[in-house]
Amino acid sequence: MTDPALPPQIRAHLPDGQELTGRLHARQETIHGWMYWTGLALWQYSESTGVEPAEYRVWLSTDHVQPLPGQTYDSVPTHRLPQHIPAPDTRWAWTVQQIRGPGGCVTGTAIHDYDCLHSPRGEALNLDQALTALRRPGARACKDCDAAIVLTPLV
Ligand SMILES: [Zn+2]
Fold first, then answer.
1. pLDDT of residue 2 exceeding 60
2. Which among 13, 23, 103, 123 is least buried, having the fewest CB atoms inside 10 angstroms?
3. First to last CA, the chain
4. How far is the CA of 114 from the centre of ligand 1 (A)?
5. pLDDT tens digits along 5-29
6. What pTM was estimated for this model as a whole?
7. Element (H or E) spanning 6, and its range?
8. E strand or H helix at 10, and its extent?
9. Residue 150 three-state SS
10. 135 alpha carbon to ligand 1 midpoint, in Å?
């Protein structure tokens, strides 16, 4: 029978093959599977209090925890991974603008933050690609966006 004042009980499997009955305090979904915040009752000793019961808390995976018959786990705090995939972070994406001189010839390039007003958009470059582009002859970092501030010290 479950005592509603206490977290439900679980069976924990220890590395040496022993099994303990513990408490389940929370569940956390991770990219590797579920993890369980468990409490295992053990003894602790201090000179001031002597030997007394203490709860040792540890995260355990599904390989080390089993539910117990008759226990209800509905009230255990459960944290799932977000179901939506967030949009890619474009804060550190860069673009290359071709600078054309009189007659339409390309005379150089400007490297922009992807969101710069002067950005041609299109293919987004990562930091390494942006630095490579900035090292080419005739390339400069735009001073109207973060490109000059962020990239120039790294070249
Ligand atoms: Zn710019």
1. no
2. 103
3. 67
4. 8
5. 899 999 999 999 999 999 999 999 8
6. 0.52
7. none
8. strand 9-13
9. helix
10. 17
